[in-house]
Structures are given as structure tokens and as C-alpha cells.
Amino acid sequence: MQSANRLQNALRKGGPTFGAWQMFPGSNLSRTLARCGPDWICVDTEHGNISDDHMHECVAAIAACGVSPIVRVAANEAWMVKRALDAGAHGVIVPLIHTADDAKKVVSSTKFPPLGTRGFGSPFAMEKFHSSTPISQGEYLTQANDAIVTVVQIETKEALANIHEIAAVPGVDSLLIGPFDLGNNLGFPILQGKMHEELKRAIDTIHEAAKKAGKTTGIYCTSGEQAQEYADRGFDMISAVTDVAALAGACNAALSKAKGSWGHAAYRGVKEGVSKMTGASSADA
């Protein structure tokens, strides 16, 4: 089971790992992202347009491509964590962690007894961890506690104040920084892609606390260039692309290029000339 968790293996080898962020539903989209070569894909059920049934389909599609499906649940609720892991997620990201007790609740939700309180019974999770041979329900039960990645999201000033206690919680594998919410919480929102120095210092503090506790650090990035920067700084779990942003960026670039062509400019000029003569609007050009 452990050998099939691409993210966990990479983290234990020292990273860095690069991931994609999926906010649109659809298993075809999951496969398209997975075939681009990420180590993991976050199926975002917190802010993404992804329901429970879509989450199950996305997890299956990602795992079938040999990539680790990681689910960001909507809140620190045990039933949400259970649904994600029962679908076969290789790990979960839990947002809005404020204290060490919040982190302990996450660990309890992700671990089977005696380490936690997760219930056992899903018939779907095992097949998402196939490598050379299938695993049985019994093997999943006995290996999941060690094989699944537990990630807590650090994005509030309370979490920053309690960062050393949170990082020290046994069973937490990684601290993932949400820079946008963290900046907002600290009073230094990210505007026009620029981070305030106080936010940069907060990110460094979280990273240092994680390393001191023997944990890995993740961060949400908005571009490959930014992802490479954090990889060079020793971060371990780094998103490099988000489907919504990538689609919008590609469409904007293509349309801007097309509208800047000689043919389109000439077409608009003709339309505007006709409009002036007839008094008609050229807004539809």
C-alpha cells in the first residue's frame, strides 16, 4: 500500500513534490491533469465546484494514472475526512487549523484505532492503492495509518501563534500554508501578486517550525515559477497549477493574440467605419 502512495514516498525521500489543484469536477479533467506529470492532485471540495460523488470519481481517475489523489475537505469534520479516505484518497488536507487540539482532531479522523477513531468498512479505498498486486481490506486496515498523508492547513494568525504546538502533534505529516488567507488574517492581503514582508516572515516561521518538528512543509502557489522558488527554499509539497486559473490564462492569452492580429484589426476598422456612416453601434464587433 505504501509503495502506491506517490506523495508519501516522495515526502519521505525528501521532496520536493509538485502538485496540481483541481476545482472543476470531472474524471476526464482529473486524467488530463494527471497525465501532465504531477506527483499529486488536490481535489478541492472546500472552495472547488466538487460534490461528494464527483470527488469519488476524481479520486479514482487520478489514482488509476499513478498519481496521488489528495482531497481538501471543506472543514475539520470527521465525517468529511472519512468520506475522502473511504473514496481512496492518499491523503487529506484539512483547512482552518487554529490550535494543536484542532490538529489532534484531524489525526483522530485519519487514523484507525488505536491511534484514532476512523471507522472501517469502505469497499472502494483498496483499489486506489494497487501497485503490482491488489491489496485486501485487511491489508488496507493494517497499513493505512502509516501510508496515508495527513496535512493540516495553516492560514490564520491563531495558527501562526500556535505553530510550534501544532507542528509537534504526532500523526501530522505536513503543514500546508495557505498564503492568501494567512495574509488576510494578518492584515497583509496579497494584492496584485505581491506579498508583504510580514507575510513572508510568517511563512518562514511556519516552515522553520515544521522542520524543527521533523514535519514537511507545503504551500499553495499560483505559478510554476513561484513553485520552483519555494522548492529551492526547501519546501516539500508545492502546488504549481490550478485548473481554473490555467484555463482562464490559456483562453485569455489565445484570445488576446487573436484579437491583436492584422485580420481582426482590419475587420474592426471596417465595422467601425460602417457604424459611423450608419449611426449603428459597433459594440458587437
List keywords for this structure.
285 residues; alpha/beta; 13 helices; 48% helix; globular
Write up this protein.
InterPro entries: Aldolase/citrate-lyase_domain, GP_PDE_dom, HpcH-HpaI_aldolase, Pyrv/PenolPyrv_kinase-like_dom, Pyrv_kinase-like_dom_sf. It comes from Neodothiora populina. With 285 residues, this protein is an alpha/beta fold. The chain is 48% helix and 14% strand. It is built from 13 helices and eight strands. It has helices at 6-13, 27-34, 52-64, 78-86, 100-110, 137-147, 157-161, 163-167, 179-186, 197-212, 224-232, 243-259, 262-278; strands spanning 17-22, 40-44, 68-72, 91-94, 149-154, 174-177, 216-219, 237-242. The protein has an eight-stranded parallel β-barrel, surrounded by eight helices. The protein is globular and about 80 Å long. Mean pLDDT is 92; it is low at 281-285.
Explain briefly what this protein structure is:
Pfam families: HpcH_HpaI. By secondary structure, this protein is an alpha/beta fold.
Helix content: 40-55%
Q: How would you spell out the order of helices and strands?
A: HEHEHEHEHHEHHEHHEHEHH
Parts with pLDDT < 50 across at least 5 consecutive residues: 281-285
Total E-strand runs? 8
Mean pLDDT, nearest integer? 92
Radius of gyration: 22 Å
Q: Percent of residues in beta strands?
A: 5-15%
- Name the shape in a single word: globular
Amino-to-carboxy terminus distance: 58 Å
Strand order of the largest sheet: 1-2-3-4-5-6-7-8
Secondary structural class: alpha/beta
Q: Count of DSSP helices?
A: 13
